[in-house]
Amino acid sequence: MTDALAPSSIAAPTAAPRIETARLILRGPEMADLDAFAAFHADETRCTGFGPVQPWHESWRWWVMNIGHWHVHGYGYFTIEDRETGAPAGITGVWNPGGWPEPELGWVVYEGFEGRGVAYEAALAARGWAYDVLGLPTLTSNIVPSNTRSKALAARLGAVHERTYHNPSMGEDELWRHPGPQEAQR
């Protein structure tokens, strides 16, 4: 009998590409980035548009799920790295777990990096990659109705509110539709 989980039967994980912008590097998630994400996820003021406050061990589960998401879909959340300091500044990328209506462009910026255009620059680069490399025909952003900052960023990216729906993880959510590959700013 063959063991289905034998190392020879497990494919190598999908490696995330490295995308460089003027001020940022988008790269695959690494376990060394977990503490910055967990600090964000433990802060009630910061994480409410992303999900409920989570203790470190639940952030660990989400982080590992993101790494697995890359393997299953060939895309996921990048770590946003500040080019000047090398510090993790947040996450952005394409997310589509079970129960999601379609692939979503998402973003989170960690404490100390807000108000500097980091989320915009990173999301723009991730969206361009999703269209140009993955060939996705469209993207959405799923935004909690009270998250005015994310709605403003979605609008700045050219997305428009399409409808409200029930998100299996977040409850009531707004689906914002991004312009397609031909119309999207790069």
TrEMBL record:
InterPro entries: Acyl_CoA_acyltransferase (IPR016181), GNAT_dom (IPR000182), N-acetyltransferase (IPR051531). It holds the Pfam family Acetyltransf_3. GO terms for molecular function: acyltransferase activity, transferring groups other than amino-acyl groups. This is Acetyltransferase. Residues 23-159 form the N-acetyltransferase domain. SUPFAM superfamilies: Acyl-CoA N-acyltransferases (Nat). Keywords: Transferase. Transmembrane segments: none annotated.
